[in-house]
């Protein structure tokens, strides 16, 4: 095994001289040989030194890499230190302690879950998990499970009691009470709605917009989550459930919901904007529409009031009144005001036909065309019936030709509300028309 040369030999090729005769050739060849040996020695020396340098370079590169890693870690520590210093400075400026400056926001404690409504199980899990992540980020698994158990009540807590007794009291560890994922698996198996997916699928198929688009979109997202429908299918189902007014507005705006560029999110955003603008329009024109409605209702009210004879007259004792019974007017005289068994004031009416009937003040109306107080039977057919049915008599015309609109007075009996041809025959009043007519002409009254 050859040893590595350690001495550099000077070799100068320019020192060789070209032989001029044949005798100088052996000496010249020996010089060439010596020169080649020197160059070979020098080359071996260079190769050995290069190999040593290569090893040193590898070692240096590894050291450099370690230094780079240390510098990176140092940079991270410097950044963290700067953030901590900034927090300390902020806390000092506001007069707060470092603990207060780094304290997480205080959240409301999640509502307890009692197991009475399984639809609330998912909401309970989300609320508790979020509360633990924000309020107690460094808590252990056992601490988290203990907090979750403290939020259970009623049947939900009774479900855990046998396992807690086995784990805590008897000292026989229950594995899923010390593993958060396993605990939630047991919780979901017991309290989640088993056919939740099919229930949501059925609800999604029948979901329609009955309130605002915001409420409809919220319910649509709740029911469609995890059902496996693609975006175009969800978009079309969302459009089908929109109200007629929203669809009509989208059509007026030439909005094609089935376009390939339209997604469920863009369609929902467009429907929300339309709904908001419709609400703004309704609010802006609420005053004008209400005033027009009021004017229209005023006219209709006045018409209906006129048709019903409103306002109702005030009744007094002794006045002629009537009530509508079976579509016919039942007439009488208001005698007095009494009280019923409940102590409520009721009218006491003497009816012209002699019958008795309980009525209320609301059903009574003032009779401006009263008939005779005495009820009489219907007139019998006679030879004069043709005359009575032929129209009012001359005396009736005299009584009806007075100034203004006065009540009709019978020329036969002096009663109001009917003509002489409608008055029943009465022998005792046979001569009354003449004296009554004469008294009217003379301006005197009959006693």
From TrEMBL:
Residues 410-424 form the CCHC-type domain. Keywords: Metal-binding, mRNA processing, Zinc, Zinc-finger. Residues 283-312, 367-404 are annotated as: Disordered. InterPro entries: Retrotrans_gag_dom, RTL1-rel, Znf_CCHC, Znf_CCHC_sf. One of its GO terms (biological process) is mRNA processing. One of its GO terms (molecular function) is zinc ion binding. Residues 283-310, 370-394 have a biased composition (Low complexity). The keyword Metal-binding applies. The keyword Zinc applies. Pfam families: Retrotrans_gag. It comes from the Eukaryota. This is CCHC-type domain-containing protein. The lineage of its organism: Eukaryota, Fungi, Dikarya, Basidiomycota, Agaricomycotina.
């Amino acid at each position: 095994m050859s040893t590595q040369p350690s001495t550099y030999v000077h070799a100068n090729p320019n020192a060789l001289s070209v032989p001029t005769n044949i005798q100088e050739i052996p000496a010249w060849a020996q010089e060439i040989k010596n020169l080649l040996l020197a160059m070979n020695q020098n080359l071996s020396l260079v190769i050995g030194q290069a190999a040593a340098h290569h090893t040193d370079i590898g070692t240096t590169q590894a050291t450099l890499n370690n230094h780079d890693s240390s510098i990176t870690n140092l940079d991270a520590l410097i950044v963290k230190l700067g953030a901590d210093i900034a927090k300390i400075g902020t806390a000092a400026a506001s007069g707060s302690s470092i603990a207060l400056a780094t304290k997480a926001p205080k959240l409301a404690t999640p509502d307890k879950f009692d197991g009475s409504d399984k639809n609330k199980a998912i909401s309970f899990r989300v609320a508790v998990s979020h509360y633990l992540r924000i309020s107690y980020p460094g808590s252990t698994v056992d601490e988290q499970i203990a907090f979750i158990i403290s939020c259970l009540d009623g049947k939900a807590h009774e479900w855990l009691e046998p396992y807690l007794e086995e784990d805590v009291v008897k000292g026989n560890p229950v594995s899923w009470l010390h593993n958060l994922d396993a605990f939630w698996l047991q919780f979901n198996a017991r309290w989640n709605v088993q056919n939740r997916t099919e229930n949501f699928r059925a609800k999604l198929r029948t979901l329609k917009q009955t309130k605002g688009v915001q409420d409809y979109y919220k319910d649509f997202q709740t029911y469609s989550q995890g059902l496996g429908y693609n975006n175009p299918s969800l978009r079309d189902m969302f459009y089908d459930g929109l109200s007629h007014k929203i669809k009509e507005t989208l059509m007026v705006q030439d909005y094609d919901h089935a376009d390939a560029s339209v997604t469920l999110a863009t369609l929902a955003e467009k429907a929300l904007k339309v709904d908001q603008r419709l609400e703004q329009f309704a609010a802006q024109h609420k005053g004008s529409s209400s005033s027009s409605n009021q004017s229209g209702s005023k006219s209709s009210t006045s018409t209906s009031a006129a048709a019903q004879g409103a306002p109702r007259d005030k009744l007094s004792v002794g006045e002629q009144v009537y009530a509508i019974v079976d579509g016919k007017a039942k007439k009488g005289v208001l005698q007095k005001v009494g009280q019923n068994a409940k102590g409520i004031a009721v009218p006491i009416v003497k009816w012209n036909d002699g019958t008795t009937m309980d009525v209320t003040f609301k059903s009574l109306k003032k009779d401006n065309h009263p008939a005779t107080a005495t009820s009489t039977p219907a007139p019998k057919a006679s030879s004069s019936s043709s005359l009575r049915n032929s129209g009012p008599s001359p005396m009736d015309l005299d009584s009806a030709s007075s100034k203004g609109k006065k009540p009709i007075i019978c020329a036969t009996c002096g009663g109001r509300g009917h003509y002489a041809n409608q008055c029943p025959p009465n022998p005792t009043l046979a001569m009354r028309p003449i004296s009554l007519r004469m008294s009217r002409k003379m301006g005197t009254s009959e006693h």
